[in-house]
Amino acid sequence: MSKTINVNDGRGADYDIRISNGFQELSELLKPFLNTGRKTVIVSDSNVYPIYGEEIKKLITDCGAFCESFVFPAGEESKTLDTVKELYGFLIDNKMERRDLLIALGGGVVGDLTGFGAATYLRGIDFIQIPTSLLAQTDSSIGGKTGVDLNDYKNMVGAFHQPKLCFMNMDTVKTLEKKQVLSGLGEIIKSALIKNKDFYEWLCNNRESVLSLNPEALNHMIEQTCLIKRDVVRKDPKEQGERALLNFGHTLGHAIEKACGFTLTHGECVVLGMIGAMKISQDRGMISKDEREIFTELIKACGYTMKIYGLEKEKIMEYTRSDKKMEAGVLKFILLDGIGNGVIVRDVTCDEISRALEEVLE
């Protein structure tokens, strides 16, 4: 069931996404990057490294390469410049040079932080993504966006830095808690809604296989989502235009994520943001009532939180106005002009945002 998707934007990014079962193929894929004398550091967190870290380290050392590991406490609260500073110190202590290599082993926090460290250490060294969560496999590991949070604002400090390889072992998804699976599935649904109506209808019609993580269904979901993101990113690698479509559900989702103190997963908050964006899209006549109801039925069937309690609407709106997607004081908002057709708008009003939030706040 292994598949390879090449990412080449014609502007410097040229790497493969390998979708596989198990880590058996990883050794051969790593060999071209482990030339004699090249040092390697695995960057991971305290949840993931105990499960996969030593296996990956052995694959690397069996290739004859030096390998150390840097492990930080799991969780969004570690995605900070302080952790990056600790990583820099570790790399300096191990005399890592510009020709050396970092390997991000973990979910989105690990991948974003490692990528940012690789982009900025010695003005840039190579790194490889080995995403172990469904969210990272279908979103954050692809496209070269890296970064960390600053004062609870998500990804406010970052850089574009493309990996040299992205290896996805679908078997790692089986070790995830349900809410982590739902977090990734939220990004999968988002991708289908903005770019691929047929894939969205497939998700609606194959819910049981999707939710049970049927191997064929899982392979199809990951492949289709990677293809969507690949095609968007290679047209707009630095988010000057179309790449902003990938933020469908994120404008409100990021604000909700911050307001709730990250008690919900990223994907759960994106789903809440999509509920709000679907409300605005319907109110503007861009999607039908039936299309919105089918979406609501899908996310209910998946078991998502439909309402969040105890949050202040005005606080969320304040966070929204502070979003990094602001341009010259105007908020870029992603809506749907029909299923499978995301569009960028710049005229969403405070009243529309307020009514959208009423759909998800209790």
What letter string, H or E per element, gives the SSE order? Answer: EEHEHEHEHEHEEEHHHHHHHHEEEEH
Task: Give the rounded overall mean pLDDT.
Answer: 93
Bin the helical content: 40-55%
CATH topology description of the largest domain = Dehydroquinate synthase-like, alpha domain
What is the name of the CATH class of the largest domain?
Answer: Mainly Alpha
CATH architecture of the largest domain: Up-down Bundle
- Percent of sequence in beta strands: 15-25%
Which term fits the overall shape? globular
What does this structure look like?
The chain has 362 residues and is α/β, with parallel strands linked by helices. The chain has two domains: 3-175, Rossmann fold (3-Layer(aba) Sandwich), CATH 3.40.50; 178-358, Dehydroquinate synthase-like - alpha domain (Dehydroquinate synthase-like, alpha domain), CATH 1.20.1090. It contains 14 helices and 13 strands. The protein has a four-stranded parallel beta sheet with strand order 4-3-5-6, with helices on both faces. β1 (3-8) and β2 form a beta hairpin. The model has no long low-confidence stretch (mean pLDDT 93).
Describe the structure using short key phrases.
362 residues, alpha/beta, Rossmann fold, Dehydroquinate synthase-like, alpha domain, 2 domains, 14 helices
